[in-house]
């Protein structure tokens, strides 16, 4: 019997080639998209979970409570890790972790920039980093120890074994000894580095980190397997009281743990509570995958039920000769599973073809895990789910036919069956409309972020790190560079102009409430900073060499002036870090962090000769290439031990929204795919409807109906369904995208034209799809269609 069912299924598949191709293609595209999204989601969720002791690894976070706000970040005192390990028996390992930075590592003639961190001695043991040479226990014990990756060992020494005990020069200043070589980190590791340095060396280089009131690096812990994180959190929360002198009734810092396995996906906090992060994108694409799979399944259901009249006589005969409904359901479900199996095989082929492009789009290294049993279980689950969903309604409908009515030729579908089929088309286009609207809004928000005025001109602004001889001879570097062709102005800034995380509450001014603890961002700059950045001074003046007292004076932004309550801040006293001075100018508010956060009060002080800052160079208009050539010539002459490196601020700014850009591209791709799959089904349905009404069309043409009138007649039913879908989808799309936009402090307005555009696009695509079959039917010779009459 099963063999007979397979034969019938195969014959039906071959006999109805066009509809079989449409069904298989739609299901294959839907499953291929779902598989790609599954691989992406699996990779996203795996970040931070690949360590041997992942369940016991935590990051120490700070909730800073001041000025009516709670700010959460990962910055902690540099001496926190060792203190926690001493104080709490639950802590197995603890290590500090600095920001990842580029430094120049050289061995003889081999000189290159590499990314690395300063870490505590427990780091390698805590994270279970596999070593190819050396011991995790002793690798980071001494200040001159250096641990490098397998990649660096091959670059500088040929192989990991040869690297052990060798010397590497660091920033042309200090020699370090290689004490261990670790296996290259996987691409989805949350922390990416190629070398590690001793933590004590870092604290000695940055002595301010030894003060409890200061915070900068991160702190990571490994708890005992039997330790209760909730109880440990309760003990950890007040830990800084008594150690940090700033903590008072008006300012407090509370510590808590965040599991390492959650840190990547749940990176956003609001009012001290976890408030999403990249997990929102994971959830979004789960929904997208389900939408696309539903659209593909709806195609199958619609086409199968529409063509069910073709198989009504077969069902009637089978029932007359004794076939039970259960066996008929099994037969039709089997046919659906056969089609789904063929579609799944095609989908796997499509995924293999598309993966390189998909990896390039998402900047990942995904691959089909064909050697993992869980993947094959997931494939079987996808097969059963898709086949069952697509084949369930057609199987139930076909098996319910009455043999008497079928064999008499009086079979008619009731209003319920037609309503259900139309409902499926509406649902299909509701999903498509949601994807189109979401894509348009994401694109507009990204365009807004890229074009928003930041309060300075980021175009053609060059940034480079002051290092080596340039840091030591900044004045000479600046003077010589200004004499070279293509250079308009030069300055420097302590922090990256796009990421200023420096905060302080040590600010005093006349009239300040002594009980308030207000957080200000701060930085120091050189002369010509405002000129180089092309900022606007709304009151007062910029720092100037003509005023010798400017070394103790300050610039502030408008937000700081507003927070201080000064009506005219210029000339008013201000003390920062117990250094009294006066405000000489107010700068128009500018963005010094991502647009995810609003502009905060900022204080700027003058430090013309400070080393190791970000040097900012403004080329003459239209002379960026000449400016770069001049910059490279001077850099190689003054700083030959360091490779020439620079970046454009606008390029770095674009990188701030890399995640959003990737999501926008993926949303566009999958929205187009969803529309295409929906149109495949609409195309097949329109073809079937035109076939069913062939004689009606012939009669109408004989009676004088025009081609336009017939096309309108065949199209209007489908267009009504699309219009209903637009009405239903628009409020849902508005709510969903409004929630997404809340993650940005600065955002576009949800204008009505966006929904009109998405609706018009849906109508246009549907009309184009339907019109092909409608026009083909309308142009048919009525003699052929009426010949049998």
Can you describe what's shown?
The chain is of the alpha+beta class and 789 residues long. Helices cover 50% and strands 18% of the residues. The protein has 26 helices and 26 strands. The strands form 5 sheets. Strands 17, 18, 19, 20, 21, 22, 23 and 24 form an 8-stranded mixed beta sheet that branches. The chain has a 6-stranded mixed beta barrel with strand order 4-5-10-7-9-8. β13 and β14 (273-274) form a beta hairpin. It comes from Larkinella rosea.
Topology:
Blueprint: H1 2-15, H2 17-46, E1 57-66, E2 69-73, H3 80-87, E3 91-97, E4 101-107, E5 110-119, H4 123-127, E6 131-134, E7 145-149, H5 150-157, H6 160-163, E8 167-170, E9 174-182, E10 195-198, H7 199-205, E11 218-223, H8 229-236, E12 251-259, H9 260-263, E13 269-270, E14 273-274, H10 279-306, H11 312-320, H12 325-362, H13 373-399, H14 403-408, H15 415-451, E15 462-465, H16 468-472, H17 474-482, E16 487-493, E17 503-504, E18 507-509, E19 520-525, H18 529-533, E20 537-540, E21 554-557, H19 558-564, E22 573-576, E23 579-587, E24 602-606, E25 614-619, H20 624-638, E26 647-648, H21 649-655, H22 658-692, H23 694-702, H24 707-741, H25 752-778, H26 782-786
Parallel strand pairs: 5-10, 7-9, 19-24, 21-23
Antiparallel strand pairs: 1-2, 1-11, 1-12, 3-11, 4-5, 4-8, 6-9, 7-10, 8-9, 13-14, 15-25, 15-26, 16-25, 17-19, 18-22, 20-23, 21-24, 22-23
Helix pairs in contact: 1-12, 2-10, 2-12, 2-22, 10-13, 10-15, 10-22, 12-13, 15-22, 15-24, 15-25, 22-25, 24-25
Keywords: Cell membrane, Membrane, Transmembrane, Transmembrane helix
Protein name: FtsX-like permease family protein
Domain MacB-like periplasmic core: 20-237, 431-632
């Amino acid at each position: 019997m099963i063999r007979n069912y397979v034969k019938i299924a195969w014959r039906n598949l071959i006999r109805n080639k066009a509809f079989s191709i449409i069904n298989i293609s739609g299901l294959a595209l839907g499953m291929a998209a779902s598989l790609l999204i599954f691989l992406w989601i699996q990779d996203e969720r795996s970040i931070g979970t690949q360590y041997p002791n992942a369940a016991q690894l935590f990051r120490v976070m700070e909730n800073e409570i001041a000025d009516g706000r709670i700010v959460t970040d990962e910055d902690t005192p540099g001496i926190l890790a060792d203190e926690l390990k001493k104080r709490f028996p639950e802590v197995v390992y603890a290590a500090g972790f600095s920001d990842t930075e580029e430094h120049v590592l050289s061995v003889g003639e081999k000189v290159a920039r590499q990314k690395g961190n300063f870490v505590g001695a427990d780091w390698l043991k805590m994270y279970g980093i596999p070593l190819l040479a050396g011991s995790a226990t002793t690798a980071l014990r001494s200040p001159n120890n250096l641990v490098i990756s397998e990649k660096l060992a091959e670059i500088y020494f040929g192989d990991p074994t040869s690297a052990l005990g060798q010397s590497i020069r660091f920033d042309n200043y200090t020699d370090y000894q290689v004490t261990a070589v670790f296996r290259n980190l996987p691409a989805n590791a949350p922390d990416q580095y190629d070398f590690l340095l001793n933590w004590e060396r870092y604290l000695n280089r940055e002595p301010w980190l030894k003060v409890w009131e200061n915070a900068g690096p991160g702190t990571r812990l490994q708890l005992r397997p039997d330790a209760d994180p909730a109880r440990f959190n309760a003990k950890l929360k007040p830990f800084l009281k008594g150690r940090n002198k700033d903590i008072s009734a008006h300012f407090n810092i509370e510590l808590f743990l965040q599991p390492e396995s959650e840190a990547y996906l749940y990176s956003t906090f609001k009012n001290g509570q976890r408030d999403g992060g990249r997990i929102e994108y994971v959830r979004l694409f789960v929904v997208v995958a389900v939408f696309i799979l539903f659209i593909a399944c709806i195609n199958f259901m619609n086409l199968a039920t529409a063509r069910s009249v073709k198989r009504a006589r077969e069902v009637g005969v089978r029932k007359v000769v004794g076939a039970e409904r259960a066996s008929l359901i099994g037969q039709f479900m089997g046919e659906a599973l056969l089609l789904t199996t063929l579609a799944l095989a095609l989908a796997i082929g499509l995924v293999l073809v598309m993966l390189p492009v998909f990896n390039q789009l998402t900047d990942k290294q995904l691959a089909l895990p064909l050697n993992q049993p869980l993947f094959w279980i997931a494939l079987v689950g996808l097969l059963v789910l898709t086949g069952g969903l697509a084949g369930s309604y057609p199987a139930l409908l076909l098996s319910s036919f009455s043999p008497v009515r079928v064999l008499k030729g009086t079979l008619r579908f009731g209003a319920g069956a037609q309503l259900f089929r139309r409902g499926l088309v509406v649902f299909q286009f509701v999903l498509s409309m949601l994807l189109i609207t979401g894509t348009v809004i994401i694109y507009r928000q990204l365009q807004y972020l890229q074009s928003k005025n930041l309060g300075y001109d980021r175009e053609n602004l060059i940034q480079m790190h002051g290092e080596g001889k340039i840091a030591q001879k900044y004045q000479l570097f600046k003077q010589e560079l200004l004499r070279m062709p293509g250079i308009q102005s030069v300055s420097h800034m302590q922090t990256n102009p796009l990421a200023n995380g420096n905060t302080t509450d040590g600010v005093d001014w006349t009239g300040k409430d002594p009980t308030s603890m207000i957080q200000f961002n701060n930085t120091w700059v050189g002369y010509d900073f405002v000129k180089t950045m092309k900022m606007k001074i709304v009151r007062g003046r910029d720092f100037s060499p003509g005023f010798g007292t400017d070394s103790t004076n300050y610039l502030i932004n408008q937000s700081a002036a507003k927070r201080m309550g000064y009506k005219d801040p210029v000339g008013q006293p201000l003390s920062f870090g117990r250094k009294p001075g006066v405000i000489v100018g107010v700068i128009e508010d500018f963005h010094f962090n991502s647009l995810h956060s609003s502009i905060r009060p900022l204080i700027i002080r003058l430090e013309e000769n400070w080393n190791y800052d970000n040097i900012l160079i403004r080329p003459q208009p239209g002379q960026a290439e000449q400016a770069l050539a001049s910059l490279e010539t001077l850099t190689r002459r003054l700083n030959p031990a360091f490779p020439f490196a620079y970046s454009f601020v606008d390029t770095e700014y674009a990188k701030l929204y890399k995640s959003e850009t990737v999501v926008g591209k993926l949303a566009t791709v999958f929205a187009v795919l969803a529309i295409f799959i929906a149109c495949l089904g609409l195309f097949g349905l329109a073809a079937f409807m035109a076939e069913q009404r062939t004689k009606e069309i012939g009669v109408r043409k004989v009676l004088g109906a025009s081609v336009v009138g017939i096309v309108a007649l065949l199209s209007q039913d489908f267009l009504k369904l699309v219009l209903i879908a637009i009405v239903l989808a628009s409020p849902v799309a508005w709510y969903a995208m409004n929630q997404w936009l809340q993650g940005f402090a600065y955002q576009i307005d949800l204008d009505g034209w966006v929904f009109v555009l998405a609706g018009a696009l849906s109508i246009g695509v549907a009309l184009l799809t339907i019109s092909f079959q409608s026009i083909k039917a309308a142009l048919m010779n009525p003699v052929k269609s009426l010949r049998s009459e």
